[in-house]
Amino acid sequence: MSTSIFLLWLVSIPLAIHAAPNKNVQPHGFLLNCGGSEKIEQDSLTYTPDDNFIKTGNKSEIQQEGLVPLLSSVRYFPDDVEEKFCYHFPVNKGRKLLVKTIYYYGGFDGGKEPPIFDQIIDGTKWNINTTADYAEGLSSYYEIIMVAHNKVLSICLAKNEHTTSNPFISAIELLYLDDSLYNSTDFGKYALVTLARHSFGSHDTIIFPDDKFNRYWYPLLDDNPVVTSHTSITPSAFWNMPPEKLFENSITASRGKTLVLNWPPFPVPKTYYYIALYFQDSRTPSPFSWRVFDVLVNGAKFYSNLNVTTDGVTVYSTTWPLEGETKITLIPPNNSPVGPVIAAGELFQLLPLAGLTLTRDVAVMEDLRKSFNKKPQDWHGDPCLPKDKSWTGVTCSSGMNTRIISLNLTNAGISGPLPPSISKLTALTHLWLGSNELTGQIPDLSQLKNLETLHLENNQLQGSIPESLGQLPKLKEVFLQNNHLKGSIPASLQNKNGINLKVTPGNEVSS
């Protein structure tokens, strides 16, 4: 198990068959069998082929005896031209999501080691390195909790300076979470990357259907005694809705003794974390079924005089600093008749978002992508983010609220009409689409108040020159020659102070 800043990959799926009857309601969202050609059933879940969510990449089957169906195929991306390869999902803007990407290399391309590459979700990027897990015969998964900021969410893979072969992916889970889960996080600025999720004192991994969101709760046993609960909890009574099965076992200490737990079982990089700890008194409910103790994390007071009953309780911090090894200490009062107890823990790293491209600008660029024929091959995912993977011809502003400020596709071989929505790119300063095969009319560009230069020369545009061009306050240069325009040049444009205007040859226009 390995850690890196902003991400830890976890052992995710056993390589042997783990069948379960499919009698449960599927979680709301998308479950994709990447590279597969048919639906598969695994652990009471149905995964569908990914063809409807991506238009690029190749498929490959992994021939390995005993491999679970979900890891038996991959989609991989050998194209050297495209900058990123993207899945697109229609989502409900503002809803909370759990996004899980699953990888098992399996030597699909005849190599010995899996490639290293980048994963990008809505413009936020991090490194995918499954080498250590694969060397131990394990699959890997990456999990992130976030809020959908647009109506379409993109999950992209991209080559980087360490990539020596083809990026690949085995499966994707994109599931909606209830609003209460992890709701004290500022999801406008951060996402939560799952580092650890453990059930203390358990022998089995807890997954769907016991966890309705298919979160993986791994067993963790140490030298502390284990107790079995005599009563059930109600998941909906907890903000984070832990599964009922999570509380069947807990670890404890003897009467009046301090309980020390080294968790997570690996060192973590220095940064801030979301920590959630879960507790339940294991005894039969009675007026005396409660325990009080202090909770410390690395010696610092996390919660004082926590009262744990048979109903269960959770305590959490949204921004707790950690570095290296972590120690959870539960200290009861000296006269306590029972020892402290703990059932489970979750640890997430706060991942600062790379920023957001303005939703309206993203929608306009999607209109352009659909309208243009022969558009650049890398026009997938967020048009601006991450900054080193912005679309060809697109220049964007800096900061959290990213805007498109320039579009230069001169001599790019594009064809098709200019959609009227291009006028909604209101931060645009330069629009250069010259020497292509654009058709139709020049749309109303009156909203482009920041536009300084407009190059539409050497196309097949028809109709008249819009009167609105003369009202753009910052416009200094307009090239329209060699189209099929007719009519007269608007006086407001022709008489504009300091304008560099080229309309002829090639158009039937008059002054």
From TrEMBL:
<keyword id="KW-0472">Membrane</keyword>
<dbReference type="GO" id="GO:0016020">
    <property type="term" value="C:membrane"/>
</dbReference>
<dbReference type="Pfam" id="PF08263">
    <property type="entry name" value="LRRNT_2"/>
</dbReference>
<dbReference type="InterPro" id="IPR024788">
    <property type="entry name" value="Malectin-like_Carb-bd_dom"/>
</dbReference>
<keyword id="KW-0732">Signal</keyword>
<keyword id="KW-0433">Leucine-rich repeat</keyword>
<feature type="domain" description="Malectin-like">
    <location>
        <begin position="32"/>
        <end position="349"/>
    </location>
</feature>
<dbReference type="InterPro" id="IPR032675">
    <property type="entry name" value="LRR_dom_sf"/>
</dbReference>
<dbReference type="InterPro" id="IPR001611">
    <property type="entry name" value="Leu-rich_rpt"/>
</dbReference>
<feature type="signal peptide">
    <location>
        <begin position="1"/>
        <end position="19"/>
    </location>
</feature>
<protein>
    <submittedName>
        <fullName>Probable LRR receptor-like serine/threonine-protein kinase At1g67720</fullName>
    </submittedName>
</protein>
<dbReference type="InterPro" id="IPR025875">
    <property type="entry name" value="Leu-rich_rpt_4"/>
</dbReference>
<keyword id="KW-0325">Glycoprotein</keyword>
<feature type="domain" description="Leucine-rich repeat-containing N-terminal plant-type">
    <location>
        <begin position="361"/>
        <end position="397"/>
    </location>
</feature>
<dbReference type="Pfam" id="PF12819">
    <property type="entry name" value="Malectin_like"/>
</dbReference>
<dbReference type="InterPro" id="IPR013210">
    <property type="entry name" value="LRR_N_plant-typ"/>
</dbReference>
<keyword id="KW-0677">Repeat</keyword>
<dbReference type="Pfam" id="PF12799">
    <property type="entry name" value="LRR_4"/>
</dbReference>
